[in-house]
Structures are given as structure tokens and as C-alpha cells.
Amino acid sequence: MKQQKMLIPTLREVPSDAEVASHKLMLRAGLIRQLASGVYSYLPLGYKVLKKVEAIVREEMDKSGAQEILTSAIQPAELWKKSGRWDAYGPELMRLQDRHQRDFVLGPTHEEVFTSLMRDEVNSYKKLPVNLYQIQTKYRDERRPRFGVIRAREFIMKDAYSFDTNTDGLDESYKAMYDAYHRIFTRCQLNYRAVEADAGTIGGHGGTHEFMALSEIGEDTIVHCSACGFAANIEKAEVIDLNSGTDTATNANVEPVELVETPNVKTVKEVAEYLGIEAGKVIKTLLYKVDDDIVAVLLSGDDELNEIKLKNLFDAELIELLSDEQVESITGDKPGYVGPINLIDKIKIVADNKIQYADNAVCGANKVDYHYKQVNYPRDFAVEKFADLRNIKEGEPCPKCQAAVSFSQGIEVGHVFKLGTKYSEAMGAKYLDENGSSQLMVMGCYGIGVSRTVAAIVEQHSDENGIVWPKEVAPFQVHVIPVNVKNDKQRELATLIYEQLLAKGIEVLYDDRQERAGVKFKDADLIGIPIRVVVGAKADEGIVELKLRTTGASRDVSIDDIISDILAEL
């Protein structure tokens, strides 16, 4: 491809709204342009990379035995109502109506569509197992789109759905996808981990793993153990109750409860400082709406609630932290002063396991500007249920081997789920077994964020000068640059190399622009094509420069050897 005619609008300045390396570089290198918040157009270079990643995904999915199809991004609301997700999915679901006021959604995922397809087309065990996949545009109305295509409202995803006759078959399908994902992300040269995860809005109660590209800007926290190899998303990581079995009634030098005035002191930090205690001695009370109930959640002041654990405790569809106005309306007290002692009866109280071992703690008194001191369980308040409700902390015991865990940040690029019969039961997807009996299909689903994977590659493969593309996903394999296209010898030699490489089936970008050498080299570094051939002052001698973008190493090569040397590097 001749660069003069190719749309590669590179930028010298970093766009003001770009926060992370991948967003900055994808804009500066002319890969993408924003159309609206969280919505992007892919320009020629970006689209070529996107198609390279898609090709890797497609090759490995086909190798695993999955079959590619393509369904509509527009889905009738009836399917989502039948599965129960029309109300449960939340405001991220993009809803619309046609001219006849019929409800539709722009699909963020396609469990309902694929399940209804299999329900209508497959009715015998003889036609199972089946694994279908597609690569398609998805939509999610993110509250806060950020980091370019990493968290966007429109994105490219590969989603696959397996249908088996039993759980043993599902285990095999899951393993095939799990292995395929390892091959895909390895070929993309990502530094990644497969971690245990929560199923989230997809649902299901079987196994699930996320594939995380390690990155400091990742929004997910990965908990991992170097001793046993355990790795999980922090949402999934269990906190071991090391005090289990302790007699909570005798584990403290119990003192009488005392009401103390705490004027204008509401937060855990403020209470701890005012009373001269550690934050861990404060019991914080968070009020949540859990489906149709109001629940008070008790935590140690130095811990963070894991909302996924709370949601799973109640097997709830929706949980929502009450606003300050809602707290005051329900309790009659201002936020910051709510506590478990004499809390109104209609509010259920659950607590993290640690709370039952708290000695002479402090909590809100359900009275503005007051707290209780010397609070102990079970003398002073009741709890309906104790559970692991908090996030694990770095250095705490591994849930598998009890060695200290470490944290890393990651970008979720893939997720595999064992759905079981959640959707087949809701959608009526059944088959006839060997005895002619009707049975529910057993399902799995498997997603890869294709556009997000591109951004993750840029995050991991870049330097201060620009992108450093891995060979298998680079938009071109070789960048041929004549320093001065007005010089006949340089132009002729560069053209010869360009044509010989094309004849070998090599993807080449030929910089035929009448630009200064400095501009060309800066653009070349920014675009990040793996191999660069510079035709300059030694062209008269039949010598060119061969430079590798990954290492920056360069050497002079004879024109007679340049093609073979390039092929050896690919």
C-alpha cells in the first residue's frame, strides 16, 4: 500500500481527553476517531489490526470445532422478557422501539438469541453437542465510557454458545474453549492470566474464568498466589474466616455500652480520629436495596464491601446502595449515624464474618451526632446472617493454601461461563434423549472483547515513541521508507524492494510521501510496523538500513540480501 494515498491522520499532540496509553496512541497513530462518547470509527490501520485479531480468533474457534454464524444485533424484547433479563440487566441495556412501538434491544450479548435458535432448530440428542459463535458489534450504555475502546458503548465481540446433553459434555466444551482462549491470547502476544471469576449479569452457577491482560490501567483487580498458582478476580476471591469456631461471647474484655456525642462526625475516618481509635474498631453500616428488601450490611471500618458477594448471598437480581435521601427517609436518621443497635425492624441485618469477633467496637447510634462505644456482638445487636462479604486484602491468606496473596491490575479481554440450564429452561430449549424423553440442553457461553484486545495489545506493546506491534497483528509487516522520494536512485530502489516483497506475499506500507525524513521516521515509530527498511544515502552503493521496531536494532544490508533478511525476521 502506498502511504501517500492511505488515510493515516497521525497527530503530534496528545488529545486532551485521552487518559491512557492505548487511547492516546490509537488516536495519535490514526487508528481510530471518536464519533460520540464511547463510540469510535476504525480507520484503515486500526481496521486492519482489528481484522488480524478477528482472524486469530476465527482460526482458533474453527480449530476447536465451533461453527460461525451471524445473528442480528437488534433483538426483540420478548426474548429478554422470557429470560428475565429485560428488567434485571439494568440501565446499560440499550432499548428502542420501532414505528409500531414494539420494544427491541441492541444486544450487549446473545444468550437469548442463540438459545431460541437452538430451541427451534435442534430437537434430538443426535444433533448435539453444538458450539456456535459469531464476531459482531455489541452495545452497552456505559454510564462512564473511558479509556477509548477499552470501555466503550459500542464494541466488537466474539461470543460463542455451546449446547450439550449433560454436564460432562459441558465440561468438555468448556475445556475446549478455555484452551482455545489460551492459544488466542498467546498468539496476540498478551501477558495475561486466566482467573476465577463471578458470572455477573450473564448468570449460571457453574465454573467461570476471566482472561485478564495484565496492565496498570486495568479496572479489575487480580488476586493471585505465587505459592499455589491460585488466581481470581477480587470479586470472586474468598476471604478465609480464620476465627471460625471462636466463641464470640468470650473473645473480648466486655465493657458496658456507652453513648457518646460525636458532633458533625460521620465518616469512618472522622469517627476514628475523633475517638482516637483505629478504623478497624468502627462498625460501618451500609444500607442497600436488595431486590424488594432493605438490608443493612455491617463491615469493619477498614474493609470494603464486595457487592458481588452481597448479591450472591441473597441470590438477588438487583442491589443498589441507598442514597442519602433514601437513608434519611427510611430510618429517620442522617447517613453516618446509622447503626445496628435498635435499628428499625423492617431492615434485615447481615454482617461480614469479621464483625462477630469485634471487641468493644464503635457504631452509629441511630441518632444524629451520636455513636455508641464498647459495642459487642451478640450482647448489643442481632445479625440475621454472617458471611464473607468483603474484599480480600493484599497480604491476607490465600483461600487455597493460606500463603499471602498479591494483587495485580488487569483488563478483561475474555470470559468463559458454564451456564447450565439457566437459559434453556427459561427459553424452553429441549431435546429428546435416547429414550424419547424431553431434556433441557446444558449450555456454556464464551466471549472475547476483540476491540478491547486491540487496545490491550497497545497497552502492553508500546514505548515513548509509539506502538510496537507484535508481528501477527501488525497492520503491515514491513515499512519501506525512501528518505527522499525526489532522489531517483532512492525511489527506484525502494520501489524495487516494495514490489519484490509484495510478490512474496508480504504486507508492505511504502512511504512515498514528499515529507522530511524526520516526519517519516516519527510517523514510522508511532505506527509501529515491526520491520523498517530505510533507503537513504547509501542507495548508490546498493545498501539499505534494516531496523526492527521491537528492539530498535538496525544494520546495513545489501540490496541482494534484503528480501531474504526480511523473510528471516518474519
TrEMBL record:
The keyword ATP-binding applies. GO terms for molecular function: aminoacyl-tRNA deacylase activity; ATP binding; catalytic activity, acting on a protein; proline-tRNA ligase activity; transferase activity. It holds the Pfam family HGTP_anticodon. Its EC number is 6.1.1.15. Gene3D superfamilies: Anticodon-binding domain, Bira Bifunctional Protein, Domain 2. Catalyzes the attachment of proline to tRNA(Pro) in a two-step reaction: proline is first activated by ATP to form Pro-AMP and then transferred to the acceptor end of tRNA(Pro). As ProRS can inadvertently accommodate and process non-cognate amino acids such as alanine and cysteine, to avoid such errors it has two additional distinct editing activities against alanine. One activity is designated as 'pretransfer' editing and involves the tRNA(Pro)-independent hydrolysis of activated Ala-AMP. Belongs to the class-II aminoacyl-tRNA synthetase family. ProS type 1 subfamily. This is Proline--tRNA ligase. It comes from Desulfuribacillus alkaliarsenatis. The gene is proS.
